[in-house]
Amino acid sequence: MSDLQVAPWILVIPVKRTAIAKSRLAAAYPQHRPELARAFAVDTTAAALASPLVRAVLVVTDDPVVSADITAVGAYAVPDLPGVGLNEALEHGAAVAAAEFPDVGVAALSADLPALRPAELTAALKACVADRNFVIDLPGTGTTLLAASPGTPLDPRFGVGSALAHQASGAVPVELTTIDSLRRDVDTAADLAHAVQLGVGPRTADVMSLVLGAATGTEGLAC
């Protein structure tokens, strides 16, 4: 890079319309599932922006409320023009990032990391020294981060078994043992309980307060 003061990564975060997102949380949180999905995305985005290695965050979404929320914390909203799936959304976001920031690496980040710590994200990005690297989620089968160096196609292969799919595509796993907040994506109630133990961001904490209020019947908290 010619300008050593420029942070070397652009992060692309895909976010579904929250009306349909996080369906596996519906049984445990039927009234709060959409709010939780939005909160996860905002807390993930804010934590990513706090990393000194992140120059910008592009959130690919067709949800206008998410767009407004992430713009308010300093990210860019990119419409999901393909509108046909997660990997296509990421490829679109990566193309936009490469066009705007051609000399900067592009990394895809899960939107479901409400406990994400900027320092742990920074450590993982520092470890991304191959052409393509990825971070395996805590269950050991999925991917929470996929990073490609400048000029290298992102080639996302998210979905069931994405860890094996990314490794088979030539991406190199990041071997760090102190990045649980980056590896703790949330799909289930048990995942969320663990994220809360790690310490979730303020938006997620606010929604969890609503959940607690609804569960205990606290006046004015249930929604």
From TrEMBL:
Pathway(s): Cofactor biosynthesis; coenzyme F420 biosynthesis
Xref: Pfam families: CofC
Species name: Kribbella alba
Similarity field: Belongs to the CofC family.
E.C. no: 2.7.7.105
Top-level taxon of the source organism: Bacteria
Signal peptide: none
Residues engaged in binding phosphoenolpyruvate: 143, 159, 162
Catalytic activity: phosphoenolpyruvate + GTP + H(+) = enolpyruvoyl-2-diphospho-5'-guanosine + diphosphate
Name of the molecule in the record: Phosphoenolpyruvate guanylyltransferase
Keywords carried by this UniProt record: GTP-binding, Nucleotide-binding, Nucleotidyltransferase, Transferase
GO molecular function: nucleotidyltransferase activity
Role summary: Guanylyltransferase that catalyzes the activation of phosphoenolpyruvate (PEP) as enolpyruvoyl-2-diphospho-5'-guanosine, via the condensation of PEP with GTP. It is involved in the biosynthesis of coenzyme F420, a hydride carrier cofactor.
Entry-linked HAMAP family: CofC (MF_02114)
Gene it is expressed from: cofC
